[in-house]
Specification:
single chain; 1241 residues; alpha/beta; 5-stranded parallel β-sheet; 3-stranded antiparallel β-sheet; 49 helices; 19 strands; binds zinc ion
Length: 1241
Amino acid sequence: MMAYPNVISCDKETFLKSKLNQEYFRVLEIKPLKGIAKPGPVYEFSMTGWSQRSVASKHPILGRTEELSQYEMYLHNAILQHQQDFTRYRDNKFAIAFIGPNSIGKTRLLEECLVNTPKFIKYEKFVLDHYDKVSFKGFHYILSKVFTGSKSFRENSENRVRFSIDLSYATPIQIHAVNIVFDCRFPLPENFQHEEDLLDDLSVKQVIRNVWKRQFKNLWVAAIDNAHYLDDESWRVLLIILDTKTVFMVIALSDDEEHTPTIKNCLENSMIVNIRLSGIDRWFHAALACQLLDVQAIPADLEKVIETASAGMPGWIQNFVISLVQRGALSIVTVTREEAIDLGAVVPSSTLLRRTDVHIGAQYDDALSKRLSYQSIYSILSISAFSKQGSTFTIQEMDTIQMAVLAESFNFDDITMDMSMDAVILKTYDSLNPYEKMLLKCASVLGDVFSRRMLMHLLQNDSPRTVALAVAKLFVIRVLECEGGDFTRDLSMVLVHPAPTLPSMAPSAPYCKCLGTRQPACCEDLPNYAFCGYMKFRHPLFRSTTYDLLTENQKHDMHARALLYLERFTRRCLPCGGGCFSKFVGLRCDDGLVQESEAVKRTRHQIRALKTETVVPGDQDQLSVFAHEESSDFAIHIIPECSSLELLKKERSSSRFLEMKRLKRLRNKQMKKGVRSFSSVETNNCECLTILMTVYSQIIDHCRGAGEFNKLYEAYIEYVDINLISLNVPQAIRLLIEVENFVQNEDLFPENVHRKWIKRFQLAKICSMRGVCMLESGDLAEAKKQLLHAMELYYYPFPTSKHWVKLRSFGASLQQLMAVYLPKIYPKRISGIIGYYYEDIAFTLNILYQLFSECKETENAKLEAKCALNYALKTNANFRLLCICYGNMISVNREERNFRRCLKLKERAMELCHRKRGQLDVTEVQAVCYLYTCMFLFYVEYGKKMEGLELGLSVIPMLSDLTDLNTRQMLLLWLLKLLLADLRINEMVNIIREFFYMTDHYDLSSETWYYFYAIVILLDTGYCVESYGSCEKFYITKGDAILRSKTPEAAWNFFVAMWLITVRIGSWEQSIIWEEKIRKILSMKYKEHEFNIMMLIRLVEGLLITLVKETDQRNLNKILLLKKSIKSMFRDMNKACCRAPMYRPRYYLLYAYFLYIKKRKLQAFNLLKRAYESAKQCKHISLLIWIEHTRSHWRGTLTQACVDHWIYHLEPDNLLDYTDFDPEKIDIVPFTLPLPNDIEK
Ligand SMILES: [Zn+2]
Ligand SMILES: [Zn+2]
């Protein structure tokens, strides 16, 4: 694809069809592709599947030969030892720790180690930061980079664990440990408690090692930078997995003072080699300075100062040299080498400046991969030693070189006195002109990394040229540098896509690697980095120092302006229509459910007036992108030659009117249609979550800086919500701690009389959110505690006695009856702050419903669902909340089989969906998915196929990886059945390909479902998606591991379906491999579960066919046994059919067949008639055909070809491909149920 240069890319279809391991694919970011409206996800293919090999820096590393050879030696030792069963104590070294103070060059050394790692060894680099000191979080971060897959991290992790070990043999403590260490949620026995230290338990250690060993067969290298930020528990886990000898770790961490006792303990372990780094030798100082300045010679004075003051710290030398450049003390001239030497400059050997060993590395790899021996390593070391000795002769004696020169007036005295970094920074700052200072101040408000656009907004009205000149200056003196943004597909004003890293070696500063930035016509003489679109402070200290120079008022003003920018320009992504988010920093937009508040109206007008104010050159077309779209929520309409006032006038007169008319028409149409499809939702291309994440992470700082405390609270709560949607629970918990501190300590509304109340409700909201986090992480007890506390804070405590629950439940039912049947009169609408209070209560109640449902406390759950809906209806304005409430209520009534109430609720919920104006946004999609799935399941149970299909199919495009697993599973399970009944084979195949056939080979349950449905299509229609042979092959390669998957039901169903095929074609030899499984199934107890009726129905069919066979052979014993078990199964099925009416016709058909075999023909024909009636009633097309077919067969009116049709087409040469199926004609010939020989037709 042209849009993705230098990458092997493919679309989803190709990706799925390739059947290659998922590890080899990575999802690429979305770019608009020419001529393709909805390209869907695009994948990059690479055979390594691991991190790209990093590019060697163009300069050689200086003075670390000893450390590098140690690394190579121990790595080599590890390569030799890792396959051995026994390793001697002194050879058991699987980690190397580089310990040293800041700016000693640890990160650079780590990189160099990776460059020197042989190519056949995979590696991954992990960089920790100070947020990571949460128990086990560091280890989870490491896992998230190596346990990759198609699902969310937790699901990937669970799949891998299931794949590695058989959890049915694990003790509760082991499962608990796996849950905590690998971030899984495997079910634990009820009331399981564990207080002791988990990682001390021997069986726990063993289970961790087993998982790890199964996952990594080959030795790989893990490079961990800033390991002092790793939490204690993660350190201990790392120590445990070192024992497996499957990973070699190279760790960089700071000096001892900061270490916790645990870290100190771990470092003393004999498997870890500790190497303390000191400064580099002084004869490398000049070379390093040359490398940093990208010159070949420096003045002797400079070398002397560095030698005396630096203590050999490479980081110090870097800062020092840069500070000299920033102050204009150094300039660069071109001279010949001889001239330089004559001038007394220090000219380091060129081998110290230019990398010569790049090609050697390649040789080394080949040699090593062919033949592993000490000799090869020795030869490498000697070559590099040789090249260092050869430094005395220089190749190009006459060549011109770049030399750094100190300014005439420059005097080192004042520098050597105060060498602290902030003093240097302040001096640099003083040397700038006022405009440059101003620009830096604005930038410092925005953060370490900032976009040019926001900077322009803060600077307001300056000409592009002035800004460009200042930026260029700051780039040259290396205060700022490019962060690399991709503006070619720049569709949001607040989100900057990162530009791809350059494949070649990093160019020398200053440079800009942004894509798609433009130079205005007046500035063509300026270098391109003057127009960098995405910049950062080269030194974070420079930012904080500059920021501290601002007065409180200035800070306040600038933060307020930045906040305004974010508020104005935070829009949904283009595929989602680019409109406002339904809720943003406490403001809700008018989505048809709420009255638009004054504040929102104001923002809208501001947006329209923006054109005159802040359009950055080159941005016009970006803005006009928004104008193209015409969704009914307010897009930003910008008509270029029009003042804002004119715009307002125009809008009031014409467009408003037209819009109202259009809306009315649209709404009427939708009302008639029934289900609102929300077809515009595009989960594949949506970037809204990323946009929101970016914005909230900035907005919190700005709210704080601008003193907007109320907004700050809202922003925090919404940010937590977004984190929960994207399943980032640790981040959510951290934010909740922050906001709780802030609410507790800050007096928000000193003049408001209700401030105590408000504080109380805010704390209640925080508690509820924390409850969600706990529920998400599986800690039900803590979740309950938090939620009940929240309810107390709301002055609405949960009833303490059963009696009280009943009473309240009765009241709530009454209220709800009124609300649902008399929606116009009851309840009274409440808005404003009291309305929000009710909505918050409803939110908490919904979570409690979820909690009680999980704890199987049905009565309590019911009560909470009812109360929640009642509260939510008081405002009747919060779309997301109402969707969840209606969904919960519909499931409650479905459980009680109160279908009339369900219908009424569904009616109200549909009204709600039609009232909703415009497109859904990312925060609402899940709620609608949930609501529709609940309604869909109700229709399934109610036996209405067409209504169900319509609802179910409209959810499919909204599904994403973020949808709750249970919802996803139930929906797909039933939807596929309905589609099959309707003979919509092609749609069915599309869905199973999309949702099940992901080649993530750790996710076995999905794959098993895929093969199961392929077989079911073959069984019921005779059309082939996957042949019997390929399904059998799937089982042979995966074996019984599929029984350990997330849903073992998938495997059991698959076995039955496979067995049925062999039984139908009468290939008794082939059926033997399945027989054992069938016997196991027959001995199992069935719980009432959706999966079991599926299985029973096929099992009975197979047994009936076996019965016919045995009757022919007159095996009386077997006949009796079979009849007995068949009878009991029919009883089970009859019961199950009440919950799943769509199985009833099939039940009748099979029962009729049973009677026919028993020669009770009259009854059999009668029952067949009943089967026909019931199939007709639930419009089960495929079964109607089968029943007709069977009737003709019994009457003897079928031709022989027709009788054998199904079996004939099962032969590998005669397969009917499913793509040949013509949905118009519906020409399927079903299987003919065989009859005993002695029955006369
Ligand atoms: Zn740039
Ligand atoms: Zn979106």
